[in-house]
């Protein structure tokens, strides 16, 4: 019924598309010639008929099992009395994936075979008129048309002779038929994965690009990737199982573009595939490294990083340090950034190796870390605003001071504070890091750190860039106070994130702790004006930070909201599967309160009236996955789409089996265009 509906729908689409089609749509998109191997088959013998199909350029026909969509060839014979026809035999097909739908097809000319059995006892010269109606589906990548050929051929009972030319032609066509494997295979379905153990001698080196075309319907998920490994004289092929577990599995193991082996597999025990040597896609690794560098560079303009970078840059101009000292500060700042990024990346990889479903900025799912960031950012903002000064050279983390120690700690602080941000290029780069070997993944994290540290590193090594900085003066104090504004805004955003994780009680607790820290820092500033010691104030500050983190960690997380203000429904894989089964278009997006890029996209594009109206007119269901608390189920789903974290935006057109992954920066036009501008 599924394929009947597909044929009927594509036929209607073809009729609609007929006036505008660049290629002719009618009964001439594929022609079939019927050729007999012998025009005079002997009585009591068999004769092979060839259906020589010749599609027009750009059109294709289908294999016995067409895959996710399509239709195989149907034959309706009119035969002389006593003559019987066997099943249609197909050559090895090829694959065509369109919008996540896998098709098993033939591009270019192809030949199918049927064998006729001639009854014994017929007199030589007896006429054998053969007629057959062939119904088939012929498609381009855009439209499909069902067509019919009424074929006839007249044979006579004779001696079964075959001309040399005809024999050579049939031999050439038969070379494209799958060869019988000769040994029975076994299959087993475990945890949704179908594994096939295929006898295949180790001396035959044709298996590395092998692909299994399942002839048994619905036994495998056609669009799912397949893996093939060798275990001695046996190939172990693994693929996601289909909707049915068959009693017998028939198919073709393709070992080349047009070569393959016909096999039958029966239920049995199949050992897990041995670990295959991991190959590295160096082009993908280099692309990911470049994306990480660019992503880290862009992080410098984020409101929580830009003030720190600006002050460190101005400190070089103000201090008038030597070339050697400037280079030392640049290297120290870079070392601080890179070490923190590598530490976070390595910890993430270690947790994933231990079975946890975590992504980049995983630590931000813990309210204690959010509060720590909030207090750090608040302290920086109050320092920039002039409430107190980090004046003692023993305090390595001072922002405006010189020295390699201060530069190192400033770089480490900048990297730690930048982790809530995921900008352009970062998502794909960090997603690639999840599937590459750990040592390559660490190189990608190294690239992210280098990108973040690059502006200050260049300032340290290029005197001309330092000379371009404004001359020191009284304006720097005003500029410093201006820079406190984005830091205060960052603190407010972190308080909001804390509220999302712990509710109103958690946010109130965090604000009370922030107020207490602010009072202590104010007292510290007053003591500094009088020239008094400040050891007690620093000890109180540390106690407030530790106590606040302990308090926030004990607050229960509130129940999740049932829906968002934009009318979206909470995401679940079951809900998504249900909507896709109903062939409804779905826009699914994955966000977190601590993701700046996510919130910008939501306010600037997703939650706008234009997008909301376009989705309503197009019947689009919006699903939102909130990853603020690091939900492992959402983490696994995000990972399957080659992302290390949020944002992730997926568009499922009606009837599509696989989504379109949208860019990380969205526009209204991009989203309204998904529905055809409706």
Q: Judging from the principal axes of the Cα atoms, what is the shape?
A: elongated
Low-pLDDT residue spans: 1-26, 391-401, 559-565
End-to-end distance = 31 Å
Note the main sheet: 8 strands, mixed
Strand count = 23
Helical content, roughly?
40-55%
Mean pLDDT: 79
Could you describe the 3D structure shown?
There is one protein chain. This protein has 678 residues and is an alpha+beta fold. The chain has 4 domains: 2-176, Thiol:disulfide interchange protein DsbD, N-terminal domain (Immunoglobulin-like, Sandwich), CATH 2.60.40; 185-267, Sandwich (Immunoglobulin-like), CATH 2.60.40; 282-553, no CATH class; 569-675, Glutaredoxin, CATH 3.40.30.10. It is built from 17 helices and 23 strands. Strands 11, 12, 13, 14, 15, 16, 17 and 18 form an 8-stranded mixed β-sheet that branches. α6 runs antiparallel to α12. The protein is elongated, with a radius of gyration of 34 Å. The chain starts with a helix and ends in a 6-residue tail after the last helix. The relative contact order is 0.08. Residues 1-26, 391-401 and 559-565 have low confidence and may be disordered.
């Amino acid at each position: 019924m599924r394929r009947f509906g597909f044929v009927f729908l594509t036929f209607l689409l073809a009729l609609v598309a007929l006036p505008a089609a660049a290629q002719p749509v009618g009964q001439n998109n594929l022609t079939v010639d019927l050729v007999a191997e012998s025009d005079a088959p002997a009585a009591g013998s068999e004769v092979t008929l060839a259906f020589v199909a010749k599609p027009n350029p750009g059109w294709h026909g289908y294999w016995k099992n067409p895959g996710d969509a399509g239709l195989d060839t149907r034959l309706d014979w009119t035969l002389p009395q006593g003559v019987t026809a066997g099943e249609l035999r197909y050559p090895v097909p090829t694959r065509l994936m369109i919008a996540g739908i896998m098709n098993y097809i033939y591009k270019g000319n192809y030949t199918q075979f049927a064998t006729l059995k001639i009854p014994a006892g017929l007199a030589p010269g007896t006429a054998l008129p053969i007629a057959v109606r062939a119904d088939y589906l012929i498609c381009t990548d855009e439209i499909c048309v069902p067509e019919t050929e009424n074929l006839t051929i007249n044979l006579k009972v004779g001696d079964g002779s075959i001309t040399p030319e005809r024999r050579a032609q049939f031999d050439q066509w038969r070379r494209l038929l799958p060869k019988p494997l000769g040994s029975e295979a076994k299959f087993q379905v475990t945890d949704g994965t179908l594994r096939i153990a295929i006898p295949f001698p180790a001396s035959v080196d044709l298996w590395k690009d092998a692909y299994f075309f399942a002839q048994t319907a619905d036994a495998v998920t056609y669009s799912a990737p397949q893996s093939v490994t060798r275990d001695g004289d046996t190939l172990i092929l693994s693929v996601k199982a289909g909707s049915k577990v068959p009693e017998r599995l028939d198919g073709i193991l393709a070992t080349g573009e047009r070569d393959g082996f016909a096999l039958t597999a029966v239920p049995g025990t199949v050992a897990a595939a041995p670990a295959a040597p991991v190959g590295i896609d160096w082009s993908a690794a280099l692309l990911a490294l470049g994306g990480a560098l660019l992503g880290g560079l862009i992080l410098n303009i984020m409101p929580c990083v830009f003030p720190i970078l600006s002050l460190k840059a101005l400190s070089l101009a103000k201090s008038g340090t030597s070339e050697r000292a400037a280079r030392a500060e640049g290297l120290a700042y870079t070392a601080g950034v890179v070490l923190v990024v590598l530490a976070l990346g390595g910890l993430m990889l270690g947790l994933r190796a231990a079975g946890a479903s975590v992504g980049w900025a995983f630590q931000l799912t813990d309210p204690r870390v959010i509060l720590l960031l909030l207090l750090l950012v608040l302290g920086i903002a109050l320092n920039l605003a002039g409430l107190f000064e980090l004046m003692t050279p023993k305090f390595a983390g001072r922002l405006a001071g010189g020295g390699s120690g201060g530069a190192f700690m400033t770089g480490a602080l900048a990297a730690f504070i930048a982790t809530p941000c995921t900008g352009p290029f970062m998502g794909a780069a960090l997603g690639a890091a999840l599937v590459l070997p750990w040592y390559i993944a660490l190189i990608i994290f190294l690239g992210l750190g280098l990108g973040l540290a690059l502006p200050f590193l260049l300032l340290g090594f290029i005197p001309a860039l330092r000379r371009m900085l404004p001359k020191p003066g009284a304006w720097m104090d005003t500029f410093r106070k201006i820079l406190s504004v984005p830091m205060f805004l960052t603190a407010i955003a972190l308080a909001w994130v804390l509220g999302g994780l712990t509710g109103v009680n958690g946010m109130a607790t965090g604000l009370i702790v922030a107020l207490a820290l602010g009072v202590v820092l104010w007292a510290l500033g007053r003591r500094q004006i009088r020239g008094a010691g400040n050891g007690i104030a620093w000890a109180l500050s540390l106690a407030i930070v530790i106590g606040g983190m302990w308090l926030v960690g004990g607050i229960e997380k509130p129940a999740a909201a049932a829906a968002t203000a934009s009318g979206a429904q909470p995401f679940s894989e079951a809900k998504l599967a249900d909507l896709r089964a109903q062939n409804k278009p779905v826009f699914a997006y994955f966000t977190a309160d601590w993701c700046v890029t996510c919130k910008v996209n939501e306010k600037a594009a997703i939650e706008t009236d234009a997008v909301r109206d376009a989705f309503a007119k197009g019947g689009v269901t919006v699903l939102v996955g909130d990853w603020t608390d690091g939900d492992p189920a959402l983490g696994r789903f995000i990972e399957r789409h080659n992302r290390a974290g949020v944002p992730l935006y997926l568009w499922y057109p009606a009837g599509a089996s696989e989504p379109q992954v949208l860019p990380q920066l969205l526009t209204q036009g991009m989203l309204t265009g998904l529905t055809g501008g409706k």
